[in-house]
Design goal:
Number of helices of chain B: 11
Shape of chain A: globular
Radius of gyration of chain B: 20 Å
Number of strands of chain A: 4
Strand order of the largest sheet of chain B: 1-4
Low-confidence stretches of chain A: none
CATH class of chain B: Mainly Alpha
Mean pLDDT of chain A: 83
Distance between the termini of chain A: 15 Å
Number of domains of chain A: 1
Strand order of the largest sheet of chain A: 1-4
Helix content of chain B: over 70%
Strand content of chain A: under 5%
Strand content of chain B: 5-15%
Structural class of chain A: mainly alpha
Largest interface: A-B, 41 and 38 residues
Shape of chain B: globular
Oligomer: heterodimer
Helix content of chain A: over 70%
CATH topology of chain B: ABC transporter involved in vitamin B12 uptake, BtuC
Low-confidence stretches of chain B: none
Order of helices and strands of chain A: HHHHHHEEEHHHHEHHHH
Radius of gyration of chain A: 19 Å
Chain lengths: 314, 308
């Protein structure tokens, strides 16, 4: 079997397993799996920039929140229909990421991380400042009536799982396709050696900007999906913690692999789920995992797999 | 109160904030300057200093000054030793790779913060100031009877706040002497300029890194001990000092010590003054955006030289 056949089989296999899980797992875990798939959309968006383009952003919560508020505020306050509001959420995230990208790409390395962190912090504070409309830290709830698409109630167990699955599958397949396209391969070349890629005649800055916008739009879609399926929008999702989560997931699962983000979210979600039943300080686990990962497995779970047994892993 | 006295009060508060900030940011700046790594856990070392100060002060009997003095010695030493341990255990093993150091210190941040939550708890706890006399301040104005001095209601500070400003100045001066006048400082500067050549001349670079990392964290802890009689100890208190220190170090120029002090006063004073007259959230939005823009358009900072 060729590598592309294998990769096609792997991606379809993952989707089949996810679809089958709904009929096998008890309701508590299908609820968890829906949340994991939504967060995995966010993680995949992050991975596109960090794993494939090699840009470490510490401000992706801004894009997640842009999608979330872009959807949530237009649907509750302007009363737009759900699909239009959803598209608006993605557009909002894309625009925000374009602006941030134009500014932040003038820096690189450590400065890039700090600049993105600062912009995200300013975004978070802006949400708090306009608390009159955004309801600040308290957040707001999207009513059940506003979470129905084409007669399907997305608050029901099947509706929520189905919607999460479909949106996840779209992003999963599209991104897998994209990273194997000439565009994706050029981004990988930039990650490996930007100077040489420039020398070959590619406009690296422009390509990196495009990568930021794709990454921001997908992350924003994650945010909009989260608001749509779980009905809550709040400033917590714009905090630094939510910029660090995708980094953690992607590092754990394997940066620069298509299945890494899903594995990372799945692993981390259950790790925190289990440990939070013992202690309030569940972020301690996240800290320990981060330290151990940087020290012993900087390539993550899927990265180690690729190194050892599956060199064709995309 | 009228505008003039109000402004004076705001600048005094700002000067206290600036003094603490100068100490904390200096720790971050030294670590970045010598080791070229960004320590994201710096705010947690600050928080740990405050929490240990509370712990020490609550275990030492007698006058409040004894507990405070003990805290001022024990907290920085403990935090510094712990940071040196972090350097040995983690940073050294990942070879100070910039990206991995950031991710690793984010991990350390959560470990320290959450361990404090488990042991110290979620409550804010105060430490009693060693002395705290209220000092009323005069105000001069041209009135109907010509130049006059009067004592506006509410225009006052405390002896402890003045002490904080003086103490910070003394410590910063001592640090400056350490770096420019002693052999230890010479070794630090040699490591900063070219660690490989320094190693070749027999400087134990690995040990210098541990000392510097400990020194940086210790400075944050001193700042925290000084602030804890004014602001209570809490497990989440490390967040703001971290962000502000970043801002100061960037505005001042990464690794430039005089730049750091000047920027700390600029940021601390304006933070104090803006927060009194405008919404603190708005002040923070402008400050963070300003810093991001400085980094984007003038990455070497206001005073720094271009990083190699």
């Amino acid at each position: 079997m060729t590598a592309s056949r294998k990769s096609m089989g792997l991606h379809l296999g993952v989707l089949v397993v996810l679809a089958a899980l709904f009929f096998i797992l008890p309701p508590y875990h299908t609820g968890n799996m829906a949340r994991i798939m939504v967060l995995a959309i966010y993680a995949m968006g992050y991975n596109f920039l960090f794993g494939y383009t090699g840009l470490l952003s510490l401000g992706h919560a801004l894009f997640f929140a842009a999608g979330m508020y872009g959807f949530g505020m237009t649907v509750t306050q302007l009363g737009l229909p759900v699909p239009v509001a959803f598209a608006f959420g993605i557009l909002a995230a894309a625009v925000v990421s374009l602006v941030i990208g134009l500014l932040a790409l003038r820096t690189s390395g450590v400065a890039f991380m700090i600049v993105t962190l600062m912009f995200a912090q300013a975004g978070y504070l802006t949400i708090l400042y306009f608390g009159e409309y955004t309801r600040g830290d308290e957040g707001f709830v999207i009513k059940q009536a506003q979470r129905t698409v084409a007669g399907i109630d997305l608050t029901s167990e099947a509706g929520r799982y189905g919607a999460a699955f479909i949106l996840f599958a779209i992003c999963f397949l599209l991104l897998a396709r994209l990273v194997q396209s000439p565009f994706g391969r050029t981004l990988i070349a930039i990650r490996e050696n930007e100077e040489r890629t420039r020398m070959l005649g590619y406009d690296a800055t422009r390509l990196k900007l495009q990568a930021i916008v794709v990454s921001g739009a997908v992350s924003g879609m994650g945010g909009a999906t989260y608001a749509l399926l779980f009905g809550y929008v709040g400033a917590t999702f714009a905090t630094v913690q939510y910029s660090i989560f995708p980094l953690l997931w992607v590092l754990l699962g394997g940066a620069g692999t298509t299945v890494g983000p899903l594995i990372g979210v799945l692993f981390m979600f259950y790790l925190i789920d289990i440990s939070s039943s013992y202690t309030d300080a569940y972020m301690l686990i996240a800290g320990v995992v981060l330290v151990l990962l940087t020290m012993f497995a900087p390539q993550g779970l899927a990265g180690e797999l690729r190194k050892r047994v599956m060199p064709w892993l995309p | 109160m009228e505008f003039g006295p109000h402004l004076m009060l705001a600048s005094l508060e700002g000067a206290v904030i600036a003094s603490i900030l100068a100490l904390t940011a200096m720790g971050l700046s030294i670590v970045f300057g010598v080791m070229r790594v960004v320590n994201v856990a710096h705010g947690e070392f600050f928080m740990l200093g405050a929490v240990i100060a509370w712990w020490v002060a609550s275990h030492v009997g007698g006058h409040a000054a004894f507990g405070f003095l003990a805290a001022l010695i024990i907290a920085p030493l403990f935090v510094g030793a712990m940071a040196a341990g972090v350097d040995r255990l983690i940073l050294k093993r990942i070879e100070y790779d910039p990206d991995r150091t950031i991710v690793g210190t984010i991990g350390v941040l959560y470990i320290i913060q959450q361990t404090t939550l488990m042991t110290f708890g979620p409550d804010a706890r105060p430490v009693e100031a060693p002395f705290n006399t209220r000092l009323a301040l005069p105000w001069f104005e041209w009135g109907e009877n010509g130049f006059a001095m009067f004592w506006p209601w509410g225009l006052s500070t405390t002896s402890y706040k003045l002490f904080v400003i003086v103490a910070a100045a003394v410590i910063l001066l001592a640090l400056w002497m350490l770096i420019t006048r002693t052999k230890l400082g010479l070794i630090m500067r040699a490591t900063q300029q070219d660690s490989e050549t320094a190693q070749a001349f027999g400087v134990p670079v690995g040990r210098v890194y541990s000392w510097v990392f400990g020194l940086g964290a210790g400075l944050a802890a001193i700042g925290a001990v000084l602030v804890v009689p004014i602001q209570q100890a809490h497990y989440l208190m490390g967040h703001d000092p971290l962000l502000l220190s970043f801002i100061v170090v960037i505005i001042g120029g990464l690794g430039s010590l005089p730049g750091t002090v000047i920027a700390a006063f600029l940021i601390g004073m304006s933070d104090g003054i803006i927060s009194v007259f405008f919404s603190p959230t708005l002040a923070k939005i402008f400050a963070t955006l300003l810093v991001a823009m400085v980094l984007v358009f003038r990455p070497q900072g206001l005073m720094g030289r271009r990083a190699p």
